[in-house]
Design brief:
The protein has helices at 12-22, 39-49, 59-71, 82-90, 107-115, 125-142, 151-158, 198-201, 211-219, 221-234, 272-280, 294-297, 311-322, 326-342, 348-361, 370-386, and strands at residues 2-7, 28-34, 53-56, 77-80, 96-99, 119-122, 145-148, 173-180, 241-245, 251-257, 262-266. By secondary structure, it is α/β, with parallel strands linked by helices. It has three domains: 2-148, NAD(P)-binding Rossmann-like Domain (Rossmann fold, 3-Layer(aba) Sandwich), CATH 3.40.50; 156-311, no CATH class; 323-390, RNA polymerase sigma factor, region 2, helix turn helix motif (Rna Polymerase Sigma Factor, Chain: A), CATH 1.10.1740. The protein has a seven-stranded parallel beta sheet, sandwiched between helices. A four-stranded mixed beta sheet has the order 9-8-10-11, with helices on one face. Bound molecules: nicotinamide-adenine-dinucleotide and magnesium ion. Nicotinamide-adenine-dinucleotide (NAD) binds next to helix 1, helix 6 and helix 9. Magnesium ion is lined by residues 150-152, 226.
Length: 390
């Protein structure tokens, strides 16, 4: 029986993970669940999955959760704050950790899981973008297993033999092709993009996701973060990672080999497929996702992305090229900009302008330890906030 910790269990990925786990009670049980503030939802999850520990964001939320659990006669232990998140991510009782907190807030517990040698199911791409070399070093040093949950990276993982995952170029991989839906604004007149509302931006044509990643998909910063994520997961340089727009979201990514073969993974756009794959690998388990119906879909199309329409994608390539703390700076500025956009404090087009301003103002420095990453992250957030009119 595998014991699982789900960091961010009330989110889109967290709920999909619980859906898959519930289909296989003989294989998986839940050790810990965590949520920032959705206490009622977390209490319901506790009643159903009976975790040993539940963690929330604040002392106040912990008090409320404790009351709800007591009222149901549940014995789940309650904790709060970052130290408690790191504790459930590294506890000896747990085997696998689903890292599904959104944004930089997920870095410390994800790193704790990697250092403790867990099987880390990585959805929280921002953690890897911020601290790529440090997280990969922690995984190598502890013998942790890092399984990509992001559908593109999970697809790439499935299209490469295990023996060449860390050295693909030496094993005949010519390039990685990351597919992208293009989001809700792929065909919209570029000159009207500064008028779009956050409601339009989060209405993704193919995927149902949390609000932050949905805005990232609309700007294509999500794909930019994924280029950096692919760089660290598979050790390939930026010029070997190509982004291909594929609006149907059926081909989740491709690997091109020197002999002319291109391997792709196909499926419906439902995160339960990569979650089930990563949970059970190298075995296969059912996920609740029906197989893709190609006859019904009929046509698959592919096109090149336009950096003028999607400047965030270019910023991400620039950050990867600059190296050091540049990706962490970009990620922090993006988080602040996206939140400001979701709060209707800035327009859609200001997102990329604000990130570019922060990146221009903060030169990249070497990142030697996790404290230096957090310091750069804090400075970039402060700077980004100072550029937002109050
Ligand atoms: P979401 O907003 O739906 O859920 C986020 C979860 O994190 C919630 O449980 C929330 O309580 C928790 N959380 C938020 N802020 C927190 C904080 N400061 N401290 C602790 N916990 C906090 O997000 P999501 O769509 O599930 O995405 C989660 C991660 O997975 C993101 O990094 C995203 O990029 C990645 N991802 C998501 C999808 C998807 O389909 N949703 C696909 C690929 C990758
Ligand atoms: Mg993705």
């Amino acid at each position: 029986m595998q014991q699982i910790t789900i960091l961010g269990s009330t989110g889109s990925i967290g709920v999909s993970t619980l859906d898959v786990i519930a289909r296989h009670p003989e294989r998986y049980s839940v050790y810990a669940l965590t949520a920032q503030s959705k206490v009622d939802e977390l209490a319901q999850q506790c009643a159903r999955f009976k975790p040993q520990v539940a963690v929330v964001g604040s002392a106040e939320a912990a008090k409320k959760l404790q009351m709800l659990l007591d009222a149901q006669g549940l014995h789940t232990q309650v904790g709060h704050g970052e130290a408690a998140l790191c504790a459930v991510a590294s506890a000896p009782e747990c085997d696998s950790v689903m890292a599904a907190i959104v944004g930089g807030a997920g870095l410390a517990p994800t790193l704790a899981a990697a250092r403790a040698g867990k099987r880390v199911l990585l959805a929280n791409k921002e953690a890897l973008v911020m601290s790529g070399p440090l997280l990969m070093e922690a995984v190598a040093a502890s013998g942790a297993i890092l399984m990509p949950i992001d559908s593109e990276h999970n697809a790439i993982f499935q299209c490469m033999p295990a023996s060449c995952q860390r050295t693909p170029l030496a094993h005949g991989v010519e390039k990685i092709m990351l597919t992208a839906s293009g989001g809700p604004f792929l065909k919209r007149d570029v000159n009207t993009l500064d008028q779009v509302s956050w409601q339009e931006a989060v209405a993704h044509p193919k995927w149902v996701m949390g609000r932050k990643i949905s805005v990232d998909s609309a700007t294509m910063m999500n794909k930019g973060l994924e280029v950096i994520e692919a760089h660290w997961l598979f050790d390939v340089p930026a010029d070997k990672i190509e982004v291909v727009i594929h609006p149907q979201s059926v081909v989740h990514s491709m690997v091109s080999y020197v002999d002319g073969s291109v391997l792709a993974q196909l499926g419906n756009p439902d995160m339960r497929t990569p979650i089930a794959h990563a949970l059970a690998y190298p075995e296969r388990i059912s996920s609740g996702v029906p197989p893709v119906d190609l006859i019904q879909i009929a046509q698959l199309s592919f096109e090149r992305p336009d950096f003028l329409r999607f400047p965030c994608l270019k910023l991400a390539y620039d950050a990867l090229q600059a190296g050091g703390s540049a990706p962490a700076i970009m990620n922090a500025a993006n988080e602040i900009a996206v939140q400001a956009f979701l709060d209707s404090r800035i327009g859609f087009r200001v997102i990329d302008q604000l990130i570019a301003r922060v990146m221009d103002a903060m030169p990249s420095v070497a990142i030697t330890d996790i404290e230096s990453v957090f310091a750069q992250d804090r400075s970039a957030r402060e700077l980004a906030n100072s550029f937002i009119p109050s």
